[in-house]
Amino acid sequence: MAKVLHIISSTRGAESLTLTLGNAIIDRIKTKDPDTVVKEIDLSANPYPHLGPIQISSFFTPEESRTPEQELAVRRSDEAVAELQDADILVIGAPMYNYSITSSLKAYFDHIARARLTFRYSESGVEGLLKNKKAYIAFGSAGVFGNEQMQAYDFAVPYMKHFLGFLGITDVSVFRVEGTGIPGLQETALDKALESITV
Question: Which residues does the annotation place in the binding site for FMN?
Fold first, then answer.
């Protein structure tokens, strides 16, 4: 039985193409393993706060020494890390906003990048602690960034792959619904993305 964590970062709700693509990826996973269990995190409906002094101080304070305020500030981050540790597969819906990821997804990433929990520093460098997991990125953009001409302007997918690798998740597949704002491409963008899915 596989445990899938579906992270949704689009603000478009049911109209989101990355949500549709992410759900299609999960459907393919369920076809291979009908016992798959899925947990959803909708970052638009329930966003994580951007890190401030209280969160940072909480991260670096031993659990037994935290104040009640620090315990409250770190609770959602601890829960997010536990969900991530428990998952076998991540499906991340990630539309491109202004050449990068949504601020809600970045805030979530900031809450799961926890020294000694999801990564650690050693004499040989950084070691990701979330190993033996698979990640699928359902990426969406109005333009086309998967080609050689425009990929230099894609600051979303390379960042996500690097970040996941930093946490130890190096088996990452990316499926793109692109050209959704371009006449002549937008009509078939989703269909092409759905056809590209392999799990």
Answer: 10
